[in-house]
């Protein structure tokens, strides 16, 4: 969602901005590049949207990002045919089309903008921008059949092509120079360029070159990675744009053209196998498509034509059934077509280009949801603080050097040098290394990542949602048995494990015919459940080419015959004539079939038992139906119900014109099909590991609620001793408001040893909470929807203890993830790709167990199809997060250590030598930063998460106290060295120094020419720098050790061999330089020899500082128990919404409710208000403000 503001360009403002850009040498242009809104505000004036030539878009999320777009004017007069300029006559036949309202007559012009690949045109009537490139949803079934059924005229096609743009999903392979420019213009790299330029000008060449090389490698790798992604995505969609299609043009007949010329409203002819280049609604004939691109499952799906209804309802709402069964989605493969009559299979183009399902998938990759992670915003604040510290140093240096009368040029140069000390240029590379190492380790575990920045976020996950089928349980189902009914009673169970064939009867006929299986190249293909069910009958499927006239059967595409192992049957064949496919929202499917030798027809239905029972005559449903169903679902079985009725019709044409509602009514209940869905062997140990790590686990499934509860208990997601509360909500009816019922599910151990579940009907209305937080809510998708709409204020209360969400549609899964995120949970989602794509994209860390094209948009993909990848990812995320914090703290301290040392030397117009800096910068900091993050993740998940904020008390105190220790030690050393009897100010009294050097216990003789140092006020050579350098260098090494904490999130530091070796080597080299008496070392490092006792004193001071800092960091700042005690004593509590709700509910004696029903209030918005245990502040703020919202019609509109 975006807010849109209108602006008009002003010549004077543009001219002034241009002059300012020239005067600032392009700096202003750079600022405008980073902040596009400033450019608009500087060069334009605000105006109503209908007059704007520039629009500014602002996202309505928490990031409030801005985009600048130019308004484009399209002229229809450029078309090669005359256009009616009469304002009263529409340009296109579709009366609902925005094109008619967007084109100004007689000018024949329209205004549009392009936002993230989608085109919006200005609606002159409603005064807002509206999307084009699709047929409006307000079209009814009648409109689609009669307005578009015969195709568009050539003239209307041309108009739509101009307005809607090409039907192409074009992903530009960005030129390398453009990618390079984008990388280089990053604010940090700009500051880095300034820093390095300054250092190079001062002769600090070695470290500058090292940083330049590192930055170039980093930029080249980033550009290469972006380029590879761009090429991969381009190749993925390129074939889509080159499909040859046949369309029907009104009054002209069929015509072949390239798919990029298609427009919404065209009639597409489906000849056979075809990769769909657009979204289209089927209006004539049936077809079978492979929707693997959308769902992640390569299962054939049958599509049926949109019914020809006379009503004016929008076509998507023509009945309660799922409209998607009529829609052919872009990118899916048509694998079989079945004309309904003599004509071809036809579909009307609904959406083109990026408006399509595939376009939406590609857009989600091109424009991913920004990460709302505290680490990155805190890092920016920290860098700003360091920059301000540098600015303080800049003015300090200016004051010192101006006071001593140093020339202005040298003064400014030295001040700028101090400004650049605080922000280390190695920071971006160092922060990236932890993620790179984690990504490499994940790759070894066959977990692939397309969004590396999310690895750090995985370290904060505290709730993981799992799909059930194919994720927690095995993909395949095994037939267990059937429970037929007769005379309103369940009969003896037929077990498939007995080896006996399923006896003939209506139940066998239903299992043989009620499915969406197809015969493709001699192989039966379709949904695994359907396939397993069909195999259980031992019947076989044959092509329609076989002549079945002898059976007196109607023409059919699918013929079912008894196989050699099938039971004796009086029926020689079954023909499937009409199919109403299964959809997850309807939870059922049905077919109309004809048995050989009969002149009438049969309807069969299968689906969720609760749903099927609703459509059956009550007298045919056994009275113990619920108890029997519960008995099987409690044992974790997948249960399917079947039903049947005879259709007293003699004509095939009558059957083919039947609606779904007519077929699915007054059915006879046939029985239950019981299927086993076993847990994967990895499921229980992984869930146990997550539970022990205090990470919540939630199940979101499309399966039966009772089955889900059983699987949750069997897998350990719900402990055996915990209580489960069923939450059932009902829509408001004519005289009754919406209601929500709370029922306690209890376990009772029977004598047989089997666990059975029953609904407690006791009269207590609140669960006894002595056992603590040991209750779990379970609900269906239907109940979730009702609660979302009518009891929204109850939703957070349910979610903090909600564990099972069954019969959830794909949209509801995404919505649920979003609601968890609103409670400040960091949510992971693990699914097999089928119907989980939206949820995988919505979660902070989506992990797909499918390698289908649909999972491309998921941040993580595991090639091992079980949930073991989840703890691996969390461990690596935690290790990467802790590494990022450690590196950030280290680089901050490194900058502060150097800043303090340099500032002290500036006091007497001195600084460290180039090789002194080089030793610290390259030999220590650069090497340490690049290896510090390579420590592996700890093999066990800790029962708490690492800190998620840089601006947290322990971290801020760590930096502050270490800065204090550094400051105290360096200032003490700086002052104490001046008190020594052998001290002299070298640059002032060089003769005195040279005359007295015989007093030192060293064989080194220093000549008057001391290397690069000149004994002038800019000198490097001094006792102060000789004293401060080893202290600052050892300090840099020791803080690297202190900040490289191992357990509980990373392995111990000694397991990182390279890092440990570098630290020991750097420390050894520093001590060697400190105590060495080699003239070449002293000359090269620009040191002055001092007495041995002084050097020992320096080492002791550095070691004392290390011991104090290590004790404070390890025993106090990293002491979790101490911080928890402090929080408790001072009353500090988590600000997370879910924590607040948990605290409130723990104190609420009326929660959780059990065995009672609540009703929605009389508020006209329908929100739940029960003053008994609901306070006004708990009602979401947006609900209170709903009525008070207003928008500016001209300046502000929603896209």
Keywords:
19% strand, single chain, ten-stranded antiparallel sheet, 38 helices, 1199 residues, twelve-stranded mixed sheet, alpha+beta
Description:
With 1199 residues, the chain is an alpha+beta fold. The chain has 38 helices and 42 strands. The strands form 7 sheets. Strands 19, 20, 33, 34, 35, 36, 37, 38, 39, 40, 41 and 42 form a 12-stranded mixed β-sheet that branches. Strands 21, 22, 23, 26, 27, 28, 29, 30, 31 and 32 form a 10-stranded antiparallel β-sheet that branches. The protein has a 6-stranded antiparallel β-sheet with strand order 10-9-11-18-13-16, with no helix packed on it. Strand 34 (723-730) and strand 35 (739-749) form a beta hairpin. The protein is globular and about 120 Å long.
Q: Between the first and last Cα atoms, what is the distance in angstroms? A: 6 Å
Structural class: alpha+beta
Beta-strand level of the residues, as a percent range? 15-25%
Q: pLDDT under 50 segments (min length 5)?
A: 548-554, 747-766, 768-772, 998-1018, 1162-1199
Instruction: Tell me the helix content.
Output: 25-40%
For the secondary structure, the number of strands is: 42
Instruction: Outline the biggest β-sheet.
Output: 12 strands, mixed
Total number of helices: 38
Keywords: ATP-binding, Glycoprotein, Magnesium, Membrane, Metal-binding, Nucleotide-binding, Translocase, Transmembrane, Transmembrane helix
Membrane topology: Multi-pass membrane protein
Enzyme class: translocase
EC number: 7.2.2.-
């Amino acid at each position: 969602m975006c807010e849109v503001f209108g602006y008009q360009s002003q010549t004077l403002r543009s001219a002034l901005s241009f002059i300012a850009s020239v005067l600032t040498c392009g700096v202003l242009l750079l600022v405008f590049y980073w902040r596009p809104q400033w450019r608009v505000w500087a060069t334009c004036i605000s105006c109503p949207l209908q007059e704007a030539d520039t629009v500014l878009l602002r996202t309505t999320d928490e990031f409030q990002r801005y985009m600048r777009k130019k308004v484009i004017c399209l002229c229809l007069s450029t078309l090669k045919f005359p256009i009616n300029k009469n304002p009263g006559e529409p340009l296109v036949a579709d009366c609902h089309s925005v094109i008619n309202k967007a084109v100004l007559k007689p000018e024949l012009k329209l205004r549009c903008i392009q936002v993230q690949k989608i085109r919006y045109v200005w609606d002159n009537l409603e005064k807002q921008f509206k999307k084009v490139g699709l047929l409006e949803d307000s079209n009814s079934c009648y409109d689609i059949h009669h307005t578009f059924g015969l195709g568009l005229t050539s003239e209307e096609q041309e108009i739509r092509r101009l307005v809607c743009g090409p039907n192409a999903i074009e992903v530009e392979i960005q030129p390398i120079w453009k990618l390079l420019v984008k990388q280089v213009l990053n604010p940090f790299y700009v500051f880095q360029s300034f820093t390095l330029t300054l250092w190079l000008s001062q002769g600090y060449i070695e470290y500058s070159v090292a940083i330049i090389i590192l930055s170039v490698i980093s930029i080249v790798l980033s550009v290469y990675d972006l380029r590879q992604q761009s090429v991969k995505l381009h190749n993925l969609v390129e074939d889509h744009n080159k499909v040859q299609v046949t369309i029907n043009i009104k009054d002209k007949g069929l015509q072949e053209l390239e798919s990029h010329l298609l427009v919404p409203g065209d009639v597409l002819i489906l000849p056979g196998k075809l990769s769909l280049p657009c979204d289209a609604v089927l209006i004539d004939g049936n077809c079978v498509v492979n929707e693997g691109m959308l769902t992640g499952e390569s299962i054939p799906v049958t599509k049926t034509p949109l019914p020809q209804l006379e009503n004016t309802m929008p076509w998507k709402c023509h009945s309660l059934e799922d409209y998607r069964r009529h829609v052919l989605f872009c990118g899916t493969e048509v694998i079989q077509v079945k004309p309904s009559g003599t004509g071809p299979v036809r579909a009307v183009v609904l959406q083109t280009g990026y408006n399509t399902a595939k376009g939406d998938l590609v857009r989600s990759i091109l424009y991913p949801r920004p990460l709302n992670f505290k680490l990155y915003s805190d890092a920016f604040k920290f860098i700003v603080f360091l920059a301000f510290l540098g600015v303080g140093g800049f003015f300090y240096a200016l004051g010192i050097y101006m006071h001593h009368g140093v020339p202005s040029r040298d003064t400014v140069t030295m001040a700028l040098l101090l400004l650049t000390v605080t922000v280390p240029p190695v920071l971006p590379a160092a922060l990236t290394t932890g993620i790179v190492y984690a990504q490499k380790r994940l790759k070894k575990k066959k977990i692939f990542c397309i969004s590396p920045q999310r690895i750090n976020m995985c370290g904060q996950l505290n709730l993981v949602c799992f799909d059930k089928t194919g994720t927690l349980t095995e993909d395949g189902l095994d037939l267990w048995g059937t429970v037929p009914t007769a005379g309103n009673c369940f009969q003896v169970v037929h077990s498939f494990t007995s080896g006996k064939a399923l006896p003939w009867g209506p139940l066998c006929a239903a299992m043989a015919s009620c499915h969406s299986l197809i015969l493709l190249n001699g192989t039966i293909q379709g949904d695994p459940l359907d396939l397993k069910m069909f195999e259980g009958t031992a019947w076989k499927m044959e092509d329609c080419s076989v002549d079945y006239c002898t059976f007196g059967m109607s023409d059919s595409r699918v013929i079912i015959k008894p196989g050699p192992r099938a039971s004796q049957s009086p029926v020689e064949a079954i023909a499937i004539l009409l199919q109403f496919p299964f959809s997850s929202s309807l939870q059922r499917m049905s077919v109309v079939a004809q048995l050989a030798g009969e002149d009438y027809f049969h309807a069969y239905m299968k689906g969720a038992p609760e749903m099927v029972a609703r459509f059956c005559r009550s007298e045919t449903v056994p009275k113990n139906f619920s108890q029997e169903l519960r008995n099987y679902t409690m044992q974790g079985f997948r249960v399917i119900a079947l039903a049947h009725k005879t259709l007293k019709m003699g004509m095939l044409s009558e059957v083919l014109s039947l609606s779904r509602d007519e077929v699915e009514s007054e059915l006879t209940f046939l029985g239950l099909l019981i299927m086993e869905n076993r847990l994967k062997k990895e499921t229980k140990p992984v869930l146990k590991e997550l539970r022990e790590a205090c990470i919540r686990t939630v199940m979101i499934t499309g399966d039966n609620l009772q089955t889900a509860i059983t699987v949750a208990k069997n897998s350990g997601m719900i402990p055996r001793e915990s209580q489960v509360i069923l939450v059932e909500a009902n829509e408001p009816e004519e005289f009754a408001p919406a209601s929500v019922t709370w029922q306690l599910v209890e376990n009772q151990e029977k004598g047989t040893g089997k666990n059975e579940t029953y609904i407690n009907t006791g009269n207590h209305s609140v669960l006894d909470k002595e056992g603590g937080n040991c209750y779990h809510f379970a609900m269906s998708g239907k109940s979730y929807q009702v609660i979302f709409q009518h009891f929204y204020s109850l939703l957070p209360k349910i979610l903090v203890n909600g564990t099972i969400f069954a019969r959830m549609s794909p949209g509801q899964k995404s919505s649920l993830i979003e609601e968890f995120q609103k409670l400040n949970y960091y949510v992971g989602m693990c699914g097999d790709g089928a119907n989980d794509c939206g949820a995988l994209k919505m979660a902070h860390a989506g992990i797909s167990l499918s390698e289908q094209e649909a999972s491309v948009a998921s941040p993580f993909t595991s090639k091992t199809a079980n949930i073991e990848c989840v703890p691996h990812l969390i461990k690596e995320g935690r290790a990467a997060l802790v590494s990022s914090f450690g590196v950030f703290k280290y680089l901050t301290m490194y900058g502060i250590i150097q800043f303090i040392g340099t500032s002290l030397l500036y006091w007497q117009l001195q600084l460290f030598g180039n090789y002194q800096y080089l030793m610290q910068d390259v030999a220590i900091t650069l090497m340490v930063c690049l290896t510090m993050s390579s420590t592996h993740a700890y093999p066990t998940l800790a029962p708490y998460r690492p800190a998620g904020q840089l601006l947290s008390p322990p971290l801020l105190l760590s930096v502050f106290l270490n800065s204090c220790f550094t400051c105290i030690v360096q200032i003490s050393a700086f002052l104490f060295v001046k008190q020594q009897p052998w001290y002299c100010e070298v640059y002032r009294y060089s003769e005195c120094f040279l005359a007295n050097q015989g007093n030192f216990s060293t064989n080194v003789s220093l000549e008057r020419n001391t290397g690069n140092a000149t004994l002038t006020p800019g000198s490097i050579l001094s006792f102060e720098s000789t004293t401060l350098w080893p202290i600052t260098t050892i300090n840099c090494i020791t803080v690297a050790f202190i900040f490289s904490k191992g357990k509980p999130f990373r392995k111990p530091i000694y397991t990182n061999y390279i890092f440990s070796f570098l630290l020991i080597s750097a420390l050894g080299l520093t001590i060697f330089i400190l105590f060495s008496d080699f003239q070449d070392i002293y000359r090269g490092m620009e040191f002055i020899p001092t007495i041995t006792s002084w050097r020992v004193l320096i080492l002791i001071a550095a070691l004392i500082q290390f011991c104090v800092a290590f004790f404070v960091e390890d025993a106090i700042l990293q002491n979790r128990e101490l911080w928890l005690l402090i929080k408790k004593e001072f009353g500090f509590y988590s600000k997370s919404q879910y924590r607040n709700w948990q605290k409130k509910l723990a104190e609420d004696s009326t929660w959780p409710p059990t065995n009672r029903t609540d009703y929605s209030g009389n508020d006209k918005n329908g929100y739940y208000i029960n003053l008994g245990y609901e306070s006004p502040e708990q009602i979401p703020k947006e609900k209170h403000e709903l009525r008070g919202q207003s928008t500016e019609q001209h300046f502000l509109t929603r896209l």
